[in-house]
Amino acid sequence: KCLMRQEEEQDDDSWNRATAAGACLMLLAEAAPEIIVGTVVPFVQAKISDATDWRSREAAMMALGSILDGPPPEQLKVLVEQAMPVLLNALGTDPHVSVRDTTAWTLGRMCVLASKAHGVEKHLPALMTALVKALTDAPTVARNAAWALHNIAEAYEYECGNDFGTLSAYAEVTIRELVAASCREDSDMNNLRASAYEALNTLLQSLPLDGLRFVQELVPLLLERLEQSVGQVSASRATMSEEEKNDAAELQGLLCGSLQTCTQRLQRERIAALADRMMQAYLGVMSLGTRAVASGG
User: Fold this and answer.
1) End-to-end CA distance of the chain
2) Which is nearest to 266 in space by CA: 198, 217, 197, 202?
């Protein structure tokens, strides 16, 4: 019942009966992993498809996501395989944003365990399609979708030296949509922009060798955005508010991080043509920091 006492518009800092109940379930899953599934799953099954009450559906998603750290691998595999189609449907069709948000979070938790042994790879094509689509949803949903994509990419990082691999089929569209999410007008909400760049960086690090062409194509775009940001701040710093300055500094840091990741993957031969421009852009970022210290702003 406590899980169903959600606030109408919860955020990351909310602490109430519902969020406290979820935290308690996580601890119980660690303390009693052998029995937690049998105790919680009947509640999930009873509430997850309740079309009349969004609180019931959200509570079921929260309960499911909260117990994933506990069960033994074979039990977890069965649980994930059974739940995945329901979660994918909810992520794409549930009318209430809180349900979609918690669904994306639960999928992210499942994707931490993304391997054949834990039942995720079986649903990977549908999962990737749903998560990429969710990057266009409300910022809180898109942020958790980006986190789930980050976890999937991290799980397959061991394939980065292969000629091709699991992520090859998803590379182009996922890169494109993560970049688009990072540029949304509301990307400053719910930490969406940072989550999108973090997912992008992990994907770039994990791609097999056949995906390096997409990494190379991305560099000019990232570099152009960094140059534009540096130029805009240089031209209008005196009239910018502190919030605008901080926002620009955050964006520049994220762009520099992604360019560094691209450089590490591509090595000298593939990055040499843009090396001078990249150095000038980095120096521009550094000069903004020097001017800020000198001016006290």
Assistant:
1) 50
2) 217
DSSP 50-90: -TT-HHHHHHHHHHHHHTTTSS-HHHHHHHHHHHHHHHHHH
In tens, the pLDDT along 78-105 reads 888 889 999 999 999 999 999 999 999 9
The yes-or-no verdict on residue 182 having pLDDT over 90 is yes
What would the two tokens of residue 252 be?
A: 């520049």
Q: What is the DSSP letter of 164?
A: S
Residue keyed to tokens 């117990």: 67
Cβ neighbour number for residue 61 with a 10 Å cutoff: 30
DSSP letters spanning 218-277: HHHHHHHHHHHHHHHHHHHGGG--HHHHHHHHHHHHHHHHHHHHHHHHHHHHHHGGGHHH
In sequence order, the 6+-apart residues with CB closer than 8 A to the CB of 194 are 250, 254
CA dist 124 and 220 (Å) reads 30
Which pTM was predicted?
Answer: 0.91
What confidence tens digit (pLDDT) does each residue in 56-79 have? 999 999 999 999 887 887 888 888
| The token pair that represents 25 in the structure block | 């379930």
Distance CA 109, CA 103 (A): 10
Residue 89 CA to residue 100 CA, distance in Å, equals 10
Within 13 Å of residue 242, how many CA atoms lie on the same side as its CB?
2
Digit-coded pLDDT (tens) for 235-264: 888 889 989 999 999 999 999 999 999 999
Q: Which residues contact 64 (CB under 8 A, 6 or more apart)?
A: 40, 44, 48, 83, 87, 106
Closest-CA residue to 207 (of 177, 178, 172, 180): 172
Looking at this protein, which amino acid is placed at residue 190?
N
